[in-house]
Amino acid sequence: MKMMLKGPGEAVISQLKQHGTCNKKVLLLLYVALELIVVHSSAVLGTLNLQLDEEQPAGTIVGDINAGLPQGTTATLFFISDVEGTGVGTDLNIDETTGIIKTNRVLDREVRDHYSFIAVTMTGVTVEVSIQVNDINDHAPQFPRERVVLRIPEHTAVGTKFSLDPASDADKDQLTTQGYLIKDGNVGQAFRLESKRGSNMVLYLDLVVNAVLDREKRSSYSLILESFDGGSPRKTGQMILDVSVQDINDHAPVFNQSRYHAIISESMQPGSNILQVFASDEDEGDNGLVLYEINRRQSDPENYFVVDPRSGMITLNKPLDYEMRKVHELVVQARDNASQPEVTNAFVTIHVRDYNDNQPTMTIIFLSEDGSPRISEGAQPGQYVARISVSDPDYGEYANVNVSLEGGDGKFALTTKDSIIYLIYVDQMLDREERDSYELRVMATDSGTPPLRAESSFTIQVTDINDNPPLFDQQAYKQAIPEVVFPGSFVLQVTARDKDQGSNGEVHYSILLDPGTHSNWFTIDPVTGIITTATELDYETDPRPQIKVVATDGGRPSMSSTAVVDIILQDMNDNEPVFGSNFYNVSLSENTAAGTCFLEVQGHDPQFQWEGFSTSTTRGLRHSVEYKYLSPSGYTVGVQVRATEVETSAYTL
């Protein structure tokens, strides 16, 4: 570093050099004077701390050096020390006569945040001046890049973090970056942000997976991230984060039908197309590329058929022989092209018909979910049952073939728009409980002379819907049983029948509990409908308990019906008669006349009512009376009266 002095000394030396009068003697004297000033300045007697905000215009007054002089000290001239590289000489304008400090240019805290120098008076008083440049919010937090692409595999675990480049802000403390937020594009709140301040005061940023990512539902997100500082008003910066959800092989191919059917002639030529299977895979790229093949281990080892691996078109590979095999079952596999492929199977049933070579050919595809000839009884008129494509090898013109439909009792009809593709549809409402299958025959007749025809017969099965509730054999049942039976004793069996089939026709029984009818005395087997006692019965509590039985089928939604069962309890002698009191005390005068009634007692039996007994006096020194009551069941109750001849006798019953 190089120390320089500013002020009159510097001006004098400059003038001497300009006029050429600067000799060694003069320079020596001036050097000695300056050395004296420097020696005196080594003891700092005053300090002055100043501050101003950055970005103030040039010429802004910063402060007055005189404010840093000790009290009572004045100065008319200051020598200013300036160390090269400190910016004092370039950024500040210091008046050495007045001591006023001004900015020489617009100051930038991010370039230099502090200035210091020493001012020395002519008397040797020194003032150490420190100027602090204060930060203002003149910078916005900015991301390193305006747009970033981030690739995240689907089904990444929730909570997984991905580090992003943080925003930088040249300001400091509260005015630097304070936080981040997702401004837009966060569909379904799939992501959230987390930030953490590092030891270097940088606010680092992580993108956190907040929900399960499914590429098949959403393959990309365009998030607008915003950074903000702590200014007021705060400054912000933005970045677009393009999140690409990368596919994993999490879906297997799915056939549009689980089973396919076709009817072909044995005269079909090799290379002819039979039918096309189709499977789709929701994955993308190789994970979603579906390839087809026939599983030779499980089907068609003789290679009668081949399938195009890309289109799924099944083609006849060599001639068929109806007499050798009438039906061919193929297992067609659809696999994706992933490194670890997913595989799905579909079944293809090909019926071979023994037709002459010149007969028309038909291919029938049933439009049920599993490709079999069936239709729901709930199908509405107009709903399609099967698709028929026809051809005549003789003529090669499909329009020459007429297709007709027989059977079905008017429940089914045939339609076409181009005489090439025919559709069988429901013409009238179906009721499986009335009829569960229909025999149909499709005939294709050409225009030859004599005409030849091809026909196909099949049975359409009408599948069930839950349209019938269970019905009891009786709406009301009545059964008499003794009141004294053990729990679990048989009472009655109820039966309900449901016209539907399968789970729709499965009937389950239950009791509708009602404490007022004592239905909790009984239980019912949910399958057989057998009602048994669940606890002891009591005629005296309720001689005619009642049960409401509910029969529910297994449909979705289920249907139900109820029946009432009246139980008549037969009373049994299961209660002892009891007196109104267990103890009677009577006082009699000793001269009471014989035959005098002195007490009447009463007893009670829940089954029987009986009157009491009376007793009277007799003559004698001692006597006793015993009364008994014998109930029909054999229960005996009684009271005894004993007395001695005393002036006043007490009789106890």
Distance between the termini: 136 Å
- The global form is flat
**What is the CATH topology descriptor of the largest domain?**
Immunoglobulin-like
SS elements, strand count = 48
Number of domains: 6
Could you say which structural class the secondary elements and strand pairing correspond to?
Answer: mainly beta
Q: What does the average pLDDT come to?
A: 82
Count of DSSP-assigned helices = 3
Unreliable residue runs: 1-33, 395-399, 609-613, 618-653
Going by CATH, what is the homologous superfamily of the largest domain?
Answer: Cadherins
Indicate the radius of gyration in whole angstroms: 56 Å
**Portion of residues in helices?**
under 10%
- With strands numbered from the N-terminus, the spatial order across the biggest sheet is 1-4-7-8-2
Quaternary organisation: single chain
CATH class of the largest domain: Mainly Beta
Descriptors:
single chain; 653 residues; mainly beta; Immunoglobulin-like; 6 domains; five-stranded mixed β-sheet; disordered N terminus; disordered C terminus
Give an account of the 3D structure.
- This protein has 653 residues and is mainly beta.
- The protein has six domains: 45-134, Cadherins (Immunoglobulin-like, Sandwich); 147-246, Immunoglobulin-like (Sandwich); 254-353, Immunoglobulin-like (Sandwich), CATH 2.60.40.60; 361-463, Cadherins (Immunoglobulin-like, Sandwich); 471-570, Cadherins (Immunoglobulin-like, Sandwich), CATH 2.60.40; 578-609 and 620-642, no CATH class.
- Helices cover 5% and strands 45% of the residues.
- It has a five-stranded mixed sheet.
- Strand 31 (437-445) and strand 32 (453-463) form a beta hairpin.
- The chain starts with a strand and ends with a strand.
